[in-house]
Amino acid sequence: MCDDIVCRLYTGGIAAGQVKFSMIEFKNIKKSFGDKVVLDDVSHVMETGKANLIIGQSGSGKTVLQKCLVGLFEPDGGEIIYDGVSFTEMNVDQRKELRQQIGMLFQGSALFDSMTVQENIMFPLDMFTKQNFSDKLIRVNEVLKRVNLEGVNKKYPAELSGGMKKRVGIARAIVLNPKYLFCDEPNSGLDPQTSMVIDKLILDITREFNMTTVINTHDMNSVMEIGENILYLYDGKKEWSGNKNDIIFSKSERLNGFIFASEFLQDAKDMRMLEAKGKISNDRDMDEMLK
Q1: Dihedral angle, C-alpha 67, 49, 200, 168, nearest 10 °
Q2: 57 CB-near residues (< 8 Å, 6+ apart)
Q3: Considering 90, 142, 171, 260, which has the largest number of Cβ atoms within 10 A of its Cβ?
Q4: Which residues contact 112 (CB under 8 A, 6 or more apart)?
């Protein structure tokens, strides 16, 4: 039995192509460490087939909330519900069965340095299935193709760029067709262009397989590009929720101060508002306007 976080969280077998409608709901979640209240009565619904983002400043409770959702931390109060079934009330065996439907993309990708790409992706198949090697290899190649990394099977993590490691991490997270995908800072350490590629890949896979994807992020580009369902935490409490379009017109001072912290971003918000109201054209010719 493996106690490593990668081992404990890995996905298990839903048949390829099987479509499930699943959502995650949590109600009145509370969590403290000693006298420090980290989560204070937080409620929200993570929707199926969407990129569900949890955002907030460092120390706002994002990581603790995500760990509560996957069972690494026990909430002090409240309820977590997967697809209508209370995770909070499940016994050990029931939780183990549910975790077999969860994929996880870790902040640092968490690839095993001593394993090849193929071995890393095959790891959960070895752990949770009885498939023969040929069938496992077919599945590995399928997910590598899906993340546009064909032919890198024999490479080691040290031979990969940061973006490639993230894509290998995504491939491993989806190799067993999970119903739920959790991503912890998927763009950490990546340049803006590569971050956009990873964002698009996560969103495409979420829609293609109709997963419930939950993403912890500090990346404001991610918020504005793929934020279909956003939860903003402030000091352990739910401060705001909505989507990337709602943010543009939000009156929340704390949210605006977090998302549009600089004068440049405030100007960008104003431009988006003008576009949304039809005051300026979205396909305007700036060179012509500046003449």
Answers
A1: 50
A2: 234, 258
A3: 171
A4: 6, 119, 120, 123, 157
The first and second tokens of residue 177, run together, are 């067709």
pLDDT tens-digit series, residues 33-51:
999 999 999 999 999 999 9
Alpha-carbon span 273 to 269, nearest angstrom: 6
> What is the phi-psi region of residue 86: left when phi exceeds 0, alpha when psi lies from -120 to 50, beta otherwise?
beta
Residue ranges of the domains in the chain? 5-248, 260-291
Nearest to 102 by CA among 73, 76, 71: 71
Q: The pTM is what?
A: 0.85
Structure tokens at 235: 């000091």
> How many angstroms separate the CA atoms of 229 and 6, rounded?
27
Architecture of domain 5-248: 3-Layer(aba) Sandwich (3.40)
Contact 240, 250 (CB under 8 A): yes
Q: How confident is the model at residue 242 (pLDDT cuts 50, 70, 90)?
A: very high
pLDDT at 32 over 50: yes
The sign of the dihedral angle between the CA atoms of 183, 108, 187, 31 is positive
| Torsion (CA) 204, 206, 210, 216 in degrees, nearest 10 | -160
